[in-house]
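Appendix B. Chain record.
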Amino acid sequence: MDARITELEVKLAFQDDLLEALNHTVAQQQQQIDLLQAEMRLLYQQMKTLQPSQMADEADEPPPPHY
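Structure tokens predicted for this chain:
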């Protein structure tokens, strides 16, 4: 009976470590997502403020090779 309890305690300890590692990973990923969203908002704002004259005219660009 003691062996089963010890085995369960060991499994629980490993699960606690795994859960902590997963929580850390999720927190890091959320920080990365937040940063990427902020960068996307900044790029969106920059694109909105571009004047049409600053953007390349489609007529000036050669057609893609498959045409």
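Further analysis of this model is presented in Appendix C.
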